[in-house]
Amino acid sequence: MSSGHPSGKAHSCGMNSAFTWSYDNLCIVFPWWHLSSKNDLLIGCLGVALWAYLYEYMKYYIYNTQRHNASNVSSRYATSLWYGAQVGVSFLLMLVMMTYNGYLMLSVVAGAILGHFHWGSRVSHTHIADLSLACH
């Protein structure tokens, strides 16, 4: 029995090239993170907001580690690994924004706002621009 989708697949990930509020056939970065209901959308938005929040925490963590352990070689290696993870998360957030889905875009912004409110106040604002390849 055909599922009504090409190649017999139960779902496929759609790609938008314009702003939308639709979540039909929407995947968040990975094919397995497919939204098929309003509950999936809510969970996806919360997950994306958490990603953005954690991105802000990573900036704080790197800043704090550099400030206290700048001369320690092993600490610099660890900080460099954290920085690489931070860059990876920023690129994933950029891909979320590239879904052009309003709900997901607002989730990135909301998570960044909450993360900056919580962690950004603990970082010297003159150093924030030096901490990342921010893509959001």
Automatic annotation (TrEMBL):
Any Pfam family the entry gives: Ctr
Q: Which domain of life is it from?
A: Eukaryota
Q: Where in the cell is it found?
A: Membrane
For this protein, the record's InterPro entries field holds: Cop_transporter (IPR007274)
Keyword GTP-binding on entry: no
Cellular component GO terms held in the UniProt record: fungal-type vacuole membrane
Q: Name one GO molecular function term.
A: copper ion transmembrane transporter activity
- The residue ranges crossing the membrane are 41-58, 79-97
User: Its membrane topology, per UniProt?
Assistant: Multi-pass membrane protein
Q: What is its main location?
A: membrane
Entry keywords, A to Z? Copper, Copper transport, Ion transport, Membrane, Transmembrane, Transmembrane helix, Transport
Q: Which family does it belong to?
A: Belongs to the copper transporter (Ctr) (TC 1.A.56) family. SLC31A subfamily.
Any idea what this protein is called?
Copper transport protein
Native organism: Eremothecium sinecaudum
